[in-house]
Amino acid sequence: QPSWELFFAENRRWFSENRDPDARARRLRDLVTGALDQLVTVQDRVFAMRYLAGLPGGGAALSEAHVALVLKAVGAERAANEFVAEAVDLLVPAAGSAAAEGLIDALADKIGPGSQALLVRLCESLPEDEVLRLGGDDRWKVRRAAVGALAASPSPGASAVLAERLKDGEVMVRVAAAEVLARRKDPAVQPALGEMLAPGMPMEVRGTAAYACGLLGTREARDALRGPLFEDPSAEVKIRAIQGIEEGGDPESVPLLLETLDKVSDRIVRAAATTAIVRLETPELVEKLIERLQLTDALDPERVALVNVLARFRSDRPRTVLQA
Predict the structure, then answer these.
(1) How far lies 319's CA from each of 189, 271, 284, 302, in Å?
(2) What is the pLDDT of residues 53-73, one digit of tens each?
(3) Which one, of 200, 202, 205, 142, lies nearest residue 178 by Cα?
(4) CA 26, 53, 33 angle in degrees (round to 5)?
(5) Residue 56 and residue 62: Cα distance in Å, rounded?
(6) Residues 27/52, Cβ–Cβ less than 8 Å
(7) What pLDDT sits at residue 70?
(8) DSSP letter string over 282-305?
(9) 3-state SS, one letter per residue, for 162-186
(10) pTM for the model
(11) Which of 83, 300, 307, 319 has the most crowded CB, counting CB atoms within 10 A?
């Protein structure tokens, strides 16, 4: 039997003698929260959180003492696992800012791929003035989460924090701020992106910077993309650059994608570039590519790339030209 069931076995007599629904619910809340430190597996703790959520009143019925016990149990976990996510689901809607700040403190040093997403979610549940304060926190994971939570805010305070985080001492915070500012099409981010594209930077940093340049879509950003696309040894960095161009929707970047088809041999990169061009299809782009096709001869490598791209467009005009 799961350990929580053994724990409740001692209380069967009480429950057999007490039928008041509110009293039973209070007793169950006390038992479940008190048992969190004694439950052996993550699965048991997840079940306990779901049980608490299903009691009358759900998380809203938890007292400050209950919340404190859940936060203590979360703090004891090494990683941001399923139990931690269940605790966030239960506490944040009910206990508000106090629980969110407690969970942020508990999550700031946790490992696991889900920790950052949970931190961003917790920051998003706070009033903006609190998030702005967390933008200057001494823990870099919290600063990065605050940057993510401010992504949709148009306020001058949010813009100031994002600009400040471009100079953060932790490169992952700078990368997060750069991506948010690139999505806002803020050209002031370009110098920071140039630094992040340096060969000595980790691949993840170079990839995100290349993606942000693609999103930005300025002339300077397009010039900066030549390094990731044609000089960086990592196919992943090239693909991230192409993804940024595709999501940014900049038709002026299509020549870079065509050049990628001409110069890069990696099949996955070439496929990504072709897909991006096709998704950027406009009547003007189709005519430009047809014009380029007509200027090439049969031995020109660009001709093959242009034919492959035009054949995938949805409109009838490219097919008519190719058939001719």
Answers:
(1) 41, 20, 16, 18
(2) 998 888 899 999 999 999 999
(3) 205
(4) 50
(5) 10
(6) no
(7) 94
(8) -HHHHHHHHHHHHT--TT-HHHHH
(9) HHHHCCCCCHHHHHHHHHHHHHCCC
(10) 0.76
(11) 83
